[in-house]
Amino acid sequence: MKECYGCHSDRTGKIRGGLRLDTRQLLLIGGESGSAVVPGQPAESLLFTAMNHDGLVMPPKRKLSKQVIDDFREWIEMGAPDPRESAAALVKSTVSKADVRRAQESFWAYQPIKETQPPKVDREDWPKTDVDRFVLARLEEAELKPSEDDEPYRILRRLSFDLVGLPPSLTQIEKFSHMWADDPDAAISKVVDHYLKQPQFGERWGRHWLDVARYGESTGHAVNLTYPFAYRYRDYVIDAFNADKPYNEFVQEQIAGDLLPAADDETWAEQLVATSFLAIGPKNINDMDSLKFRSDLIDEQVDVTSRVFLGMSLACARCHDHKFDAIPQSDYYAMSGFFESTNTFYGSQKASTNPMVQQDSGILEYPVDAPSPGQKIYTQAELSDLKDNIATLRSELGQGSRFVGIQKRIYIGQLENELAGLDENGRPISFCMGVQCSASPGDATLLYRGEVDQRGDVIPRGFPSVLSTRPARIDKQTSGRRQLAEWIASDQNPLTARVMVNRVWHFMVGQGIIASPSDFGATGQPPSHPELLDFLTARFIESNWSVKSLVRDIATSRLYRQRTDMNEEAYEFDPTNSLLWRGHPRRLDAESIRDNMLAVSGQLDLKPPHGSEIANAGFVRIRNGVLEEISNGVGDMAGRMGGGGMGGGGMGPSGRLQRGGPGDGAGPGTRTQARGPGNGMRPGGDNMGQNGGGGMGRGEIQRGGMQRGGRASAGGRGNSDAGDVPPGRLDMVDANFRSVYLPQARNETPRSLDVFDFADSNAIVGRRETSNTADQALYLLNNPFVLRQSKAFATRIADEAATPTQQIKLAFRLAYARLPQTSELRTAKALLADFNGTEKGLELLCQSLLASAEFRYVY
């Protein structure tokens, strides 16, 4: 106190370097340079090194005596005991109430949605919709002109890929051409309505959502374990877009579906699966520190909720006040309290002696009978054998070497997983990922610098202060997620609808009205057409938050028809095309390139697979693109034990039955059951507790009118042009279903998607990058999938057209939705002639079309 308080205490009013020494907690927190004292570690304690004048110098004018310094060393080595009152005050925020109020009043994103009217324009013959009037008004203001309408075949191709992610069929090309000749507006309107009704619409637009939801079927990180039930969330999203589920309901279900009322088990199941949104993120399950793991899990949930729905980077305030936006650190912890009061069930496996898996989780019992692929039905004899095998192995524990003992424990854990996934009759129990309320909900504690061992004051749960003028009304007996979901999805929230409207605009036009789709803050881009954004947002809400209505408004606009040709004068004034003086030429995304190849070759299977390849495998580890057992040696032991029912990797979670959290008035009863390994299972250190209960409903589930389950996913399992594909590989070059159903393991993206900039499932991807690399050219030249599609394309052409000229024309129609130009026809005929009309020449022609820029781009 004598030497240090003069510069480092609230008592003297001097806080140099951000260091306050008034309490033990503040001493441990330290200042701008870091923690002042690390108990037990003098060499790591900045206060001690400063006393020695080693780098930092304290006191600045003279060095303390050796005796005092030695006493401090001994004190730190003892653990730095401190009799002073240790309750720390909040770190003084750099974001004042005045800063928050200023942002509320002036920053564009936080303003209420304005009801704007379409502006008047000079050129009345150009607009087809109100959207066009807003765009044209900006162009006229800049003395620019819109581009002319594109060719009909290009418009059709653009619509087809944007709405369903597939090329138009020959029949659609022919019909559209005739309709366009009669009435272009009616032709576009009719084809848009047709595509909006197709189940492929949900697959296309569901994939857009999976990008921002960071959908993945494994944990990622060094120990990459599968999420066998993640596919249920994928199917939920696809069905939601097909059914045109109101977006505000879609939002609420993903944040608090387990807490919303439900009329029946099918609705309850759908809402429960929706909460997988909070559970499917990447997780470092090898983290030795359970508190840090829990903190990181909550941080990831805060981040995805705030950025995906609100366009706010709240997670930037985890360790300190936001550097650019009016978001104090307390706002982050007010939001994290909702998730601190939530248990997350992501369904990874933990074998008790396996050193790889430090953080585990239970799994939720699905409210309807819908087993995943890979789950087998056991006869009573097989069920008895399974139990006997477990008992035999347990009796043998302690025999043999330590390594054999570890193997046995791991194998016992896998057998118990298998048993836990069966009912008393040997039927597989259905499971899903998701969240539930904690047994003991409460507020979060502010962590200084985000460090779990530097705890500050408790922060009441609430909403970002810049968006709320009064304290949130949270039911303290629950997690409060339902209130959070209702606030986010409210008509009065200025961000939620704006963010989604901008996302839809981005996917339809090629560039958002706000170019940073997940950042509506100070570091994001301002809107290029703010009045248009609010006009579309108000209309979106009025249309019952209908995504399909919004897509239709954009697709039928004159803006959407514009050519993509360059205009030097306009380019000089507006090089980024933010004023939309032309259409944006766009490369197809990775899925559309692959699906396009399958479609034109005649190989595409539009029937959705049941589950996914990862669901087939169950709880396994992924390494080098291969699904494998969690531990080597387990398979040999299984053979010695006579199998033990380990087929499919073991779909059931281990451990005893536990119950989900309080219902918040949710659903018909509180029927969700949580199963977790061991006694008192906790995800990342959070005690699950046992709440609620009740019987589990059984029966068929149909979502969005589209029944899945026609067949188990397959592919990558047999012979192909690539030779034998080993079992368990995730590349699946033989699979012919749509790309959205390919395995989405983290860090193990199938080659056909990865090479064309597929979304990183470890991140929230609101806008994919588009690269042009030599690797892509090599892929198109040499990859077995491309070669197989080229061959199938050639076979189709040979079967459906007789002469070389007819074959070339058909190939161009399928690949480009147009006939070849004279020069193209001449060159293609010469190529076929060089190979004397053999199949090889046709294969090379087809491969050249598949590898061309026009095939991969929409213009």
Automatic annotation (TrEMBL):
Question: Where would I find the Cytochrome C Planctomycete-type domain in this sequence?
Answer: 4-61
Which Pfam families is this protein grouped with? Answer: PSCyt1, PSCyt2, PSD1
Point out the coiled-coil segments of this chain: none
Start and end residues of each DUF1549 domain: 131-343
Q: Where is this region: Disordered?
A: 642-728
- Boundaries of every DUF1553 domain copy: 480-831
InterPro entries recorded: Cyt_c_Planctomycete-type, DUF1549, DUF1553
Q: Where is the composition biased (Gly residues)?
A: 642-668, 677-698, 706-718
> Which protein are we looking at?
Protein containing DUF1549
- The species this protein belongs to is Rhodopirellula sallentina SM41
